[in-house]
Design goal:
By secondary structure, this protein is α+β, with helices and mostly antiparallel strands. It contains 13 helices and 23 strands. It has a 6-stranded antiparallel beta barrel. The protein has a 6-stranded antiparallel β-barrel with strand order 7-8-9-12-11-10. A 5-stranded mixed sheet has the order 15-14-13-16-19. Strand 21, helix 11 and strand 22 form a beta-alpha-beta unit. Helix 2 packs parallel to helix 5 and helix 3 runs parallel beside helix 4. The longest helix is centred in the middle third of the chain and has 17 residues. The two termini are about 55 Å apart.
Length: about 550
Amino acid sequence: MSGAAWHARIECGGAVSGAGFLVTPSKVLTCAHVVRDSAVAPVTVSFPNSRELGEVPATVAVHGGWRGDPKDPGDLAVLELAREVPLAPARFAPPGAEHTRPAPALVAYGFPEGYDEGVLAQYRALAPTLICDEWVQLEATTAHGQPLAAGFSGAAVALPDGRVVGMVAQIAGEHGIRVGRMLPTTVMARYWHGLGELVPAHGCTRDATRRLYGLVRRAAAAGLDCDPDRLYVDAVGPFGPPLPPDGFDSLASAAGYVHWEVEDPEAVPRFADRLAEVLSAPPAPAASWSPILVELDRSGAGADQVTVEVSAYRDGLRRPVGAVRLPRAGVRAYVQERVDEAFTQLAPGADELITFVLPREWLNEPVAHWECGPDDSTPLGCAHPLVVADRSRHRSARLRHQLTKKWQKLRTVQGAPTLHRVECCSRERPPSLRKRLRDEDADLAGYAAAPAASPDHFEAALNTPVPVLLWPRGGCPGADHDTPCAGSTFLDGLVSYVDGLPPAELPRHIQALREEAEADDEPERHWARDVQILWDAPHCFPEPAASLHSPVA
């Protein structure tokens, strides 16, 4: 300790007023009350263990808000040196290191009267409980030796190995009891956010912590508008500390909470990795959608019980809206209510895309025909772009990876892709269809019949990275005919309609097609009356498709 060059002596107005410690080549931490007269008197900093540096002028760069009373919070100041000094700054211990057992001896280097060169005092932290949510109480390890006294204010409180855990802020002593108070690093960071990247998180290296705060600065500079609550949930995992009741008001506050309050050593790297993904996300395709996700699945709690989760995406992050288990008969009303609520989570002016993620056997559900609400009979698929997605494919990392590559290709290739027809009378074996779709690098496939009429042919496409599938919910009931049928009519109309349309824009065009069919004089006879579109674009759902929580539990 005595050889640590980063210990500093602070003079304000020509007299020694306290201690401090170097935290960067040009910044020194001390108490605000140590430099209370800095507005009218010069401040200088010297380093007793590097006397050749002399006295370095300094100014108060950050003030914690201390108002003058010893009991006021925010007794912290950051001094900016007039020049950088060639000294290694202090190293910090992870938050709470002073409370390990057995309690470690803590050492402070202060400058009481008569000790211009400095003197050491040894104390221990009494308990993790903060006094007034601000201070840790210190008590002397012995009844003799140097007590904390005037001149110790602003001194680093360090472990025996020299790593800093806090700063002496108050001196007290009555009836021979040697006590004092320190600001722990967790509290100091409230008043100077720059401290965050200097203090390693629980079990993390200093480099990991610096990376976290560097990414936070990048996000701020880029004006990134992301959901800090969602990043926090991703970082701590399902068994980590719950989200604070009011959530986080900024990305910086969420990062700080993960750093200071979460003991899982992997939380900081996970938060940083997820933020890095958001910052480096590839540009959106021509249509930049803001999805509202409706996930339906059998709950496992009974044949009639369905799990429903509704969420909204904003800036690539998912915002939960609601999750529940209920009888199948109640699903439509619940979805209507929660979809309406989900619109409050979208950015102003965003292009909504309602996406139903369904089990494979429910892909033909008439969700596009569900009414918008009890007071609005407009079909959802006419009011908004609406698509479906296959639940197992939505959760497959392999297919998501392949589909992402497909969309990257679609953004660079000129012209619109060809629609691959799968006729109702086709005798093509499913393995042959799968090979054809893969060999021809198919982007769009149109079916003449619903999935139940040709399940093996549908499975061939669903297990191949074809981004878009279209079919009529009714269409041809079977393949036992030799003449054109409703399915063929559907494919003929579809080929003509989608010709020249970019796949990224198809949800909007299918909405217009549904409106056209609904407004027809004979809507039931319109070829596109029951068009269903499976539109699978992982770039619109960059997060892993994990359950928000378990309604069953």
